[in-house]
Design a protein that fits this description.
Elements (H helix, E strand, L loop, with lengths): L12 H10 L1 E3 L20 E3 L20 E3 L20 E3 L20 E3 L20 E3 L20 E3 L20 E3 L13 H4 L4 E3 L9 H7 L1 H10 L4 E3 L1 E8 L5 H8 L14 E9 L6 E9 L3 H8 L7 E7 L6 H15 L4 E7 L10 H7 L4 E6 L8 H13 L6 E3 L1 H11 L7 E3 H10 L4 H13 L15 E3 L2 H13 L1 H5 L3 E3 L3 H7 L11 H10 L3 E3 L6 E4 L23 E9 L6 H8 L4 E6 L2 E5 L8 E6 L4 E8 L3 H18 L5 E6 L8 E3 H9 L4 E3 L6 E3 H4 L10 H14 L5 H4 L4 H21 L9 E4 L10 H6 L7 E8 L6 E11 L2 H6 L1 H21 L6 H20 L6 H6 L8 H17 L9 E4 L5 E4 L1 H7 L20 H5 L26
Parallel strand pairs: 1-2, 2-3, 3-4, 4-5, 5-6, 6-7, 7-8, 8-9, 11-13, 11-14, 14-15, 15-16
Antiparallel strand pairs: 10-17, 12-13, 18-19, 20-22, 21-22, 23-27, 23-28, 24-25, 25-26, 26-27, 28-29, 30-31, 32-33, 33-34, 35-36
The chain binds guanosine-5'-triphosphate, magnesium ion and zinc ion (2 copies).
Length: 1014
């Protein structure tokens, strides 16, 4: 709507009459520049809507409308409010979003009945003290303003339920926030917040929904937040006895024998050693430096890496984010520009653009370093933190370098972090064992923690934190791995390297016979035997790292994806093969700025459930496991290093979206510094031109419909180019409705689909795509409990649930309602009876769920007939009927619920790819209700898993196995093996006994995310 063209509409006597009669007046989009004087005479008005006008102020006369309960002046040009606004004593809702308000009058404090105050999108930089008198306020929306602080008085708003503060300039939160005991939604995204006050723990104990993205949060808050609010609560609680910790992590990297270990010795004030031994793997030593500004010492844990080629690839997996890197090179060797650049590149790829590195050249008493520092600075902007020349023998240059390290370390985000001394002691105790014990049991880990008085919650959080920081490997929620804590990641990566090296496995194109594992890990691992009891763990860990998966063959074999053959097998089709008219094609090119070694192998492992046995070094051909979708995909790395993805199906969107999300998820997590761009190939036959995806999306947003190809000069319809991206752009509720209509149009309903109607593939895949989108949308609000459910009344006597019987009952009393959670396993969604809750006397609770229940209903009524139709024989008729009956019952119930008016949506249209405010609120009520009825959060054994494309889902025990197959059963040895002394020997092995594994790219990523030292 173009507002400039609007002419102001006149307010007539008839308008006034009608308003008087109806009790409300709506002048939305009238182009009003000022409020007609007559309005102030409408003293009986209950509601006044002035949305989308050009009002620059409200007249003092507004104060006469003393009966107003709702005033909506959104999207105007108000720069202030008259003090008479304070006269509106009955006002309950006041909407002032999208204006130009810089201040609020003190009189706002008189609106004692106000429940909702929305000020989203104004220019407020402070709030009047009087605002905090509004005791009845339940919602305060201050998004998109210029607030720099939240006054402590916020705690006086004792009835506040929802507080929106996103996109302001807030740096600190008052501890008093913790006193808002009714708060169930707190939005803080896009501010300048570094710390969260400990008192917030009082909010987290309940089922609050908290979002704090896009803030410069100090460590370890970002990691804790990705783990969940329980982890955050455990940490905040532990801060009770916390003291600041001045610690940081420094990584010393560079080629072999350039003087890394000697440099660390010099920095530590140790004597120079001529002909020092080479470093095997890595060593960690503390370095104590004075804080440059504060009068106290900092402890820098220096990781000294062995520089030999063979270690290089494994070591990249230990590169931490936001740590300091010291890149060492030897001046005596002459021009080393390329080498230094190579190292900087590797650091950036793995760590991201915020990496910091100091360049240090050794042997400088013998020769001056030659390096073009200025040129490096251009290639790696913001990354270089200085260049130093030292000599480890004479000690020259060391003092200056030490000062610079102190400067940089002091600036690291983890410096001065508040930590409980108990956590530190437990951590130090556990980590100090890594030299003698490469792994410990979870029981031992717990013991060490309880020794330091950490409770259960704290212990779990500490373990997760140490895993996220790359100090240990621990998968507490994996059935097979939850009992083992790996303290020495290098011990594990070497074991994996032996498998990758195994000539027999290589010769058999990556098929690993489990019977070989004993040979590989014991007899062939010269000097480093790994006890047999660890073997199943290793194999399971390899699966966690996306290195291998078990082949169906009785699970006696695994496929090592990075060892598959180089040559492409014969495929049903390739990129250029023409397709029959009933099949749609979607193609995407991912242009990688640098190679991402391992990407194809990872994709092959992640999507092994779609495998048809056609994989090669540079690609994989997949078929969606749900046959009804008839979806096939080809992923291939081209000669020029670009990755092509093509999906062919009657409705390709679902599989395409899954694979694209999966690819992006992998790239972002494993190579955060990697730049890439998505391109769409020109559809003109033989053209070869390409369109950047982002450009097309932007163009379409500007209302353009065509784009010409620079190569073939043909105009293309943008919406056709974007096929495959369109569904993810459409408004989700509209998509659900359209599909529902389509379903209705299939005459004879879904039963006919079984008769082989062509539409079934299209419809099935589209519904599945919608449900996936729904879950993505829902996941932005809630991930810590199942989100799909149905409601049912109690069965009457012995009579089974029947919708018609229910309709006959004139009124549903809501004395007793059953809520059943659903398993979210894609394609096979189903109710999970053990997760059924008997809600007694909860009419009000159930009513609160209405907006979300309607949304869920819209979704489930699509997928239920599909589940019944596509699972065919696998789903007995009776169960299929039970599914539809549940939907019918849910429909009857939600229709009887008091429909809360969704005014916001009614007026402005629904938001596209997010929940409406009402739906979000209702979803949070569901969560709160579940947590109330299920204090231990068992959910009938529904468990959370991560789908291959990254999203979190809740699945039943039957489907859980597909995500977490547990430990593999390895073949028993033909004769008993002699017991091995614990792998102590493995680590204490003499350097020359350690076989140097030559690792290929894409060895395991050890920590899933790389963050600084803890
Ligand atoms: N003259 C001189 N010799 C040095 C200097 N730095 C190191 N060395 C010698 O160079 C050799 C290699 O030094 P190291 O510190 O072991 O090198 P490194 O980089 O740790 O080697 P790896 O652990 O194998 O990667 C040793 O024999 C040192 O004594 C220096 O600045 N000047
Ligand atoms: Mg060394
Ligand atoms: Zn073209
Ligand atoms: Zn299930």
């Amino acid at each position: 709507m173009n507002r400039a063209n609007q002419t102001e509409r006149r307010f007539t006597a008839e308008d006034a009459d009608r308003a008087r009669k109806e009790g409300f007046a709506r002048f939305s989009g009238w182009g009003l520049k000022s409020l007609p004087a007559e309005i102030s005479e409408l003293g009986n008005l209950d509601r006044l809507y002035l949305i989308h006008n050009e009002l620059e102020s409200l007249p003092a006369g507004i104060g006469h409308l003393i009966n107003l309960t709702e005033l909506d002046v959104r999207s105007n040009r108000l720069s202030s409010l008259p003090k008479e606004i304070g006269e509106l004593r009955r006002l309950e809702e006041l909407y002032l979003d999208d204006n130009r308000l810089q201040t609020l009058p003190a009189e706002i404090g008189k609106l004692s009945e106000l429940r909702e105050l929305d000020l989203d999108g104004n220019r407020l930089s402070h709030l009047p003290a009087e605002l905090f008198r509004l005791r009845n306020l339940e919602q305060l929306d201050l998004r998109n303003n210029r607030l720099t602080e939240i006054p402590a008085d916020i705690c006086k708003l004792a009835n506040l339920r929802r507080l929106y503060l996103s996109n302001n300039l807030i740096t600190e939160l008052p501890p008093e926030l913790g006193q808002l005991t009714k708060l169930d939604k707190l939005e803080l995204d896009g501010n300048q917040i570094r710390e969260l006050p400990r008192e917030m723990v009082q909010l987290l104990g309940r089922s609050i929904s908290l979002s704090v993205s896009r803030n410069p949060l100090a460590d370890p808050l970002p990691d804790l937040l990705t783990r969940g609010l329980d982890a955050l609560a455990a940490y905040l609680r532990s801060l009770e006895d916390a003291v600041p910790h001045y610690e940081a992590k420094v990584l010393i990297v560079g080629e072999g024998a350039v003087g890394k270990s000697s440099l660390l010795a010099s920095l530590r004030g140790e004597p120079f050693v001529l002909n020092r031994d080479t470093t095997h793997g890595l060593e960690i030593h503390p370095l104590v430096l004075p804080h440059p500004d504060l009068d106290l010492p900092m402890t820098v844990r220096a990781w000294d890496f062995g520089g030999q080629e063979v270690y290089r690839i494994t070591h990249q997996f230990f590169f931490s984010r936001r740590a300091l890197y010291i890149l060492v090179w030897n001046a005596r060797r002459g021009q080393e520009q390329g080498e230094v650049e190579g190292w900087l590149g590797r650091i950036r790829l793995r760590v991201g653009l915020d990496a910091r590195a100091i360049l240090v050249s050794t042997h400088c008493d013998e020769r001056n370093p030659e390096i073009d520092f200025e040129q490096l600075k251009q290639v790696f902007p913001n990354m270089l933190a200085g260049q130093f020349s030292v000599d480890n023998q004479s000690g020259s240059g060391i003092a200056e370098l030490r000062d610079q390290i102190a400067q940089e370390a002091a600036a690291l985000p983890q410096m001065g972090r508040m930590l409980s001394p108990r956590w530190i002691a437990a951590r130090d105790d556990i980590l100090s064992r890594y030299q003698s014990e490469p792994q410990i049991s979870w029981t031992d880990f717990v013991k060490a923690c309880s020794h330091q008085h950490l409770n259960e919650e704290e212990t779990t959080t500490l373990a997760e934190l140490l895993h996220d920081l790359g100090h240990i490997i621990y998968y507490g929620d994996d059935e097979g791995l939850k009992d083992i804590v790996v303290l020495n990641p290098e011990w594990l990566t070497k074991a994996i390297a032996f498998v990758l090296e195994d000539p027999v496995t290589r010769a058999s194109n990556g098929v690993l016979d489990h019977a070989r594992l004993r040979l590989i890990w014991q007899e062939h691992a010269r000097g480093v035997p790994y006890p047999a009891r660890h073997h199943p763990y290793f194999l399971r860990l390899m699966e966690k790292f996306d290195i291998s998966y078990r082949l169906d063959d009785n699970e006696k074999k695994s496929l090592i994806a990075q060892l598959v053959p180089h040559s492409r097998p014969v495929l049903p089709w390739i990129f250029k093969t023409p397709a029959p008219p009933s099949v749609r094609i979607v193609t995407l090119i991912c242009k990688l700025q640098e190679p991402a070694p391992g990407l194809i192998a990872w994709m092959t492992v992640r999507h092994h459930n779609a495998s048809v046995g056609k994989h090669w070094r540079n690609g994989v051909f997949l078929r969606h496991p749900t046959t009804a979708y008839a979806s096939e995909a080809l992923i291939e790395l081209q000669q020029d290093g670009r990755l092509m993805l093509q999906v062919r199906a009657p409705s390709p969107d679902l599989f395409f979206n899954v694979l694209r999300d999966s690819m992006e998820h992998l790239l972002r997590r494993r190579w955060p510094g990697l730049q890439y761009e998505f391109l769409i190939p020109c559809p003109t036959p033989g053209c070869g031109g390409e369109f950047p995806l982002n450009g097309l999306l932007r163009r379409r947003e500007r209302g353009k419909t065509v784009r010409d190809c620079l190569n073939c000069d043909v105009d293309h319809d943008i919406s056709i180019l974007l096929t495959g991206f369109t569904s993810s752009q459409a408004e989700i509720r509209a998509q659900l409705e359209a599909l529902h209509d389509e379903l209705g149009a299939l005459s004879g309903g879904i039963e006919r689909i079984e008769g082989g109607v062509k539409r079934v593939e299209v419809f099935a895949a589209q519904s599945a795509d919608s449900l996936r989108r729904v879950l993505k949308v829902v996941s932005t609000e809630v991930i810590d409990c199942p989100r799909m459910f149905t409601l049912a009344p109690p069965p009457r006597n012995t009579e089974p649930l029947s919708p018609s019987g229910l309709v006959r009952q004139r009124r549903i009393t809501f004395q007793l309602v059953y809520l059943t959670l659903w398993c979210e396993h894609p394609g096979e969604w189903h109710p999970w009876q053990p997760a059924t809750y008997e809600l007694k006397q909860e009419r009000e609770w159930v009513a609160r769920l209405t907006p979300y229940a309607n949304f869920v209903l819209k979704t489930l009524r699509l997928v239920v007939p599909i589940v019944a139709a596509v699972s065919g024989v696998s789903l007995p008729k009776q169960q299929a009927e039970d599914l539809s009956k549940r939907i019918e019952l849910m429909k009857v119930i939600t229709e009887r619920l008091p429909a809360e008016v969704e005014r916001q949506e009614r007026l402005e249209g629904t938001p596209k790819n997010e929940l409406t405010k009402a739906e979000g609120q209702a979803l949070r009520s569901l969560r709160a209700l579940l947590f109330k009825y299920d204090e231990n959060r068992i959910f009938g054994d529904l468990r959370r898993v991560q789908a291959p494309s990254g999203e979190l889902l809740w699945v039943c025990p039957h489907h859980y196995h597909e995500y977490d197959p547990g430990l593999p059963q390895l073949p028993e040895p033909s004769q008993a093996m002699p017991p091995f002394a614990e792998s102590r020997r493995a680590l204490g092995a003499r350097p020359n006994e350690v076989p140097a594994p030559t690792l290929r790219p894409a060895v395991p990523e050890v920590p899933e995310s790389q963050t600084p030292t803890f």
